[in-house]
Amino acid sequence: MTSESPASCCFTGSLHEHKAQGDIQQIGNFRVYAASPKSDTIPRKAVILLGDIFSIFPNSQLLADEFARNGYIALLPDLFNGDQISPQDYEAGKVDIKSWMSRHTVADVSPVVEAMINHLRTTLGVENVAAAGYCFGGKYVVRYLKEGQIDSGFIAHPSFVTEDELGEIQKPLSISAAEHDPIFTSKNRHASEEILIQSKQPFQINLFSGVSHGFAIRGDLNKPLVQFAKEQAFMQALVWFQHTL
């Protein structure tokens, strides 16, 4: 694998203060947090945010709103159909991780991603669709980097990505990696570099020192180094999409 299965680092982190600018909508059968630029016209570009195991929560909403402020329709779907994990339940020991993971396989999550792509391309007529994936969601960015699906991808500290999935991308991919990451390890990162070189697709890998898995969405913003890395990871995604869409 180019990244390992989720571990305890996927379930820990800090909540960020945030007043949501978007709203909860229903797209097909799925609950979605949606944020749009303040404009009367439909933008020609959109980003699908494929989040971590906490799905729609303040930190991921903050990222969606930031993309909207930069001119994107931003969709943050509930990948888990109401079965997302809450930080409080995890900390209280109320989550059976193995059982939870068994309920959220590729067969379960893929229809959600496909519904978002179809809504943007068919219903809204958006020309350019990007995706940003964090931890759990990174796998699905990689899987849908195909012609007519996702046009450009960004992933931060991904989990569950296989070598075959990475080797089959047909569109550009940018990766933010943490120095301390038991899932996207230095070995996995170097293996990913070799696979991406062979793919012949444009790619970028940025390594942030002094931070851990989850920094780009759950980092402790009271720590200047972590705040810097989180903000730079977002800018990495933004500039990458501007360049590749």
UniProtKB/TrEMBL annotation:
Task: List the GO molecular function terms.
Answer: hydrolase activity
Keywords tagged on the record: Hydrolase
InterPro entries on file: AB_hydrolase_fold (IPR029058), Dienelactn_hydro (IPR002925)
Pfam name, any one: DLH
Q: Does the keyword Hydrolase apply?
A: yes
Positions of the Dienelactone hydrolase domain: 30-244
Say which domain of life the source belongs to: Eukaryota
- Output this protein's name: Dienelactone hydrolase
The taxonomic lineage of its organism, from the top, reads: Eukaryota, Fungi, Dikarya, Ascomycota, Pezizomycotina
